[in-house]
DNA sequence: TTGTAAGCGTTATCAT
DNA sequence: ATGATAACGCTTACAA
């Protein structure tokens, strides 16, 4: 087989100019019916199935592709209900714009030549959960002049952000817990950074948190409970909450009466750990989450949590990209979480005085 | 601001040829350190951040992007645990190959100019759950000479397929149910086609099923229970199973003693419907699923089901694409499901004779 | 190690 | 309604 036919071949065989043939396929200008028929017939005969998208996108300066960069391994992202809900809204918003979604990882393995924000043929980028490490790649994208929108992250003041009132919502949960009489509190946090460290956090480590969501929620909680014990999880998974919960409930004398988890999945794990330790929720220990998703395996419990508008966040990001691509300005949007009191928090138990 | 700097501008300003500048960025040939430094410095000065991916991909003939086409709306796909598991394996396999994943819908709305298999700058395509409608688009891709792999679908004999032994596994479940003494059976199927019709199916409709998974599993079941009542669901969701279950359990006189659902989610819905109708599972009615995923809200039940290797399926598809891109042949693979007996199937209840 | 030159396949512009 | 032509920005033989 010879080389693939091009639009020039088709044009020549049909006895028209390349521009006419091009127009037949793009429909961007009127063409005589007879001419179109002929071109199409010739194209079919040559096995030409339409313009090469690579060439078209070079010429047009648009590829019709928007990158969605995730901080973590894609496998992890798909497991996170909040991310999928956000993606859902996002793909919706982008579809209206006529763009496809290219899934990208923030940090492709060094050796791999997988596409990155800097090397992929994209028209714009949406970063989900952008933290420090992403900054320099981001710089490359921005200096290419491509629109960038950030969901739950910080990429500088001139990059539109779609974010939550994480601090306020976390504080609201904390207030609720304090109003119930709790004084011995533990916080189970989302990851501090890419390092996936697990366990009790020192003040220094807390000061060095690079993940904006983690630090905003933590600040909200600590504003109410400055002395809370802080334990970080390596990712937002039930199993991670389980591990953290086991740590917290290991010593009956020092265990908290309430645990504030930074995600519903973590909270579900903490609850499981509590039950494993023979503690009743909420009679012996209260547990609160964050996100407002449906969690598997919680049984009859309804989590006390902050419900976030995840789909709307994604859709708003898509809309912002569309606007920027159209040359307009796009503003940051701050979404509001809704506090939901469930059945997993209750009055603080009365401590037995040490006789 | 003037037009964006190109590699030619950089080369000129650095006093080298374009090819040298190109090599500095691609690293495909040795360059004197001094030269590289100079080029890089000049590039930085001009705000040049590397080759335009669109131009590079035209020249190279590769874009580094593989399309993953889903039949349904992305939102729906993400809700399906099997699809996410498959995507998980797939993105893994493709990452090794160094390709990005472009999420595509099979059937973009007519008005939208969203990219399609025919118009996106892709190097290959993976179709998940390809049914009839996708065929013609597919034709365009194949005649562009791009590798195509299909997961759970049929795109012609020369397109490698990653599939399950759906028929055998379904038959195995049916045998299990029959061995328990059941004779009054209902099947709750996955969608027949894109139409999302719901309810009792006529033989004609059954004959016209275009979704391969649905028809393969159904044939397996009918091979054991030729007279089973067949009810189709509009999609693989717990709520759909619930709707189907309500239909089945509406009339105590005609209700089946066992329901074979084509997915675990549907089975979970059927179980919920049974409990809603005051029926105990499995004492009054047995329910079996398909997939082997963890389902939310099943309580203490362990579903009797066929466990499929979803992640492996995806990864194998990624590997197949890699092989085809390397010019090798890729063969179809048929994965085997594992029957798992749970607690949702039991002996058929003894019918009260009508006195 | 660096330079020359020839495209990659398309589409926008401007005539005709 | 159609045609001629010039980019779009880069890469890679091949030559020096």
TrEMBL record, chains A, B:
Chain's gene name: cytR_1
Range of residues in the leader sequence: none
Lineage: Bacteria, Bacillati, Actinomycetota, Actinomycetes, Micrococcales
Keywords associated with the record: DNA-binding, Transcription, Transcription regulation
Coiled-coil positions: none
Residues annotated as domain HTH lacI-type: 5-60
Designated name of the protein: HTH-type transcriptional repressor CytR
GO molecular function: DNA-binding transcription factor activity; transcription cis-regulatory region binding
Organism domain of life: Bacteria
Species this chain originates from: Microbacterium azadirachtae
A Pfam family reported for this protein in Swiss-Prot or TrEMBL: LacI
InterPro entries: HTH_LacI, LacI/GalR-like_sensor, Lambda_DNA-bd_dom_sf, Peripla_BP_I
